[in-house]
Amino acid sequence: MLLDCAIIGGGPAGLSAALVVGRGRKQVIVFDDELPRNRVTQKSHGFITNDGMTPFEIRQAGEADLQNYPHIQIKRSRIIEVQNNEENFSLLTQEGERFETKKIILATGLKDILPEMKGIHEVYGKTLFSCPFCDGWELKDRPLALIAENPRALHMAKLLSNWTKDLIVFTNGKQVFAEEEKALLSAHSIQVIDEPIMSIHHENGQMHSLHLADGETVNREGGFVASEFKQSAPFAEILGCQMTKNGGIETDILGRTTVSGVFACGDNLGGPAQLVLAAAAGSQAGMGVIHELVQEEFQEKTSL
Ligand SMILES: Cc1cc2nc3c(=O)[nH]c(=O)nc-3n(C[C@H](O)[C@H](O)[C@H](O)COP(=O)(O)OP(=O)(O)OC[C@H]3O[C@@H](n4cnc5c(N)ncnc54)[C@H](O)[C@@H]3O)c2cc1C
């Protein structure tokens, strides 16, 4: 059977896109392998009507909304190959099943790449986070660390000073600041420590200190990391979609990529990473798919 739309990724972006496409009376499948970027966190914040829910609860609520529409299917499966056959697309699941579809929405999200240091994976999502808008409130006024090995360090340090006045930036042996930037931070009582971090000490993910290469131990109750990120799935590049200079997928306001029939939405666009924004982008891409399908149906009838 030829589907109207296949969505790869069942996070807020993909589920929201599915809702719009399904309500637009088109046959749609969402493929998801259940590895969302925020699976390490216990609570999600800042998504109005969902504030404080776990990522899993938000996903469950989204999937429950989709149950009302017979045109929408969810398949817990990893897509391992996408082919552009000009007229349509062919998708292959890890289990070896093939699906043909008129349109594709890439809602595959991003992957965080954390700096290498002992203990970081244990505290990430519990007391170490990547976005102050998501978790700054929970850590407010506490002694915090910012682990930043890249040029985002200055921007993040300034931003975090809004949530705590007790902030130390750890560059983990990298020279990320110019002298005048260090002076600026120092003028705002933000210390910079360039010594490499040997390990993060914690108890069940609750950070209590950072152990440095020179033997010093610095007490910190939590913090943020300026992590690097990459696309979770290679399909945009494989299909030849134009990418932005920060590694996101380029789209227009309706989620259309530069490749005809391929749409994208959510974190993989490379903009601010927020659940509500991913859901909004999914909704836009869903509308884009419906616009295109309806337009094509009109054209087909006119050319008869
Ligand atoms: C630690 C942390 C905490 C966060 N906390 C918050 C918060 O409190 N509030 C907030 O608003 N935002 C938060 N975020 C950001 C939020 O997680 C993202 O903005 C949001 O998840 C993006 O949604 P998405 O649908 O684009 O991607 P995701 O939620 O990452 O979903 C993408 C889905 O695609 C699937 N997928 C990928 N490739 C394939 C494939 N080949 N086949 C099948 N499925 C595939 C993945 O398994 C995943 O389920 C946090 C992020 C992190 C890292």
UniProtKB/TrEMBL annotation:
PANTHER family: THIOREDOXIN REDUCTASE 1-RELATED-RELATED. The keyword Ribosomal protein does not apply. Pfam families: Pyr_redox_2. This is Pyridine nucleotide-disulfide oxidoreductase. GO terms for molecular function: oxidoreductase activity. The lineage of its organism: Bacteria, Bacillati, Bacillota, Bacilli, Bacillales. Its cofactor is FAD. It comes from the Bacteria.
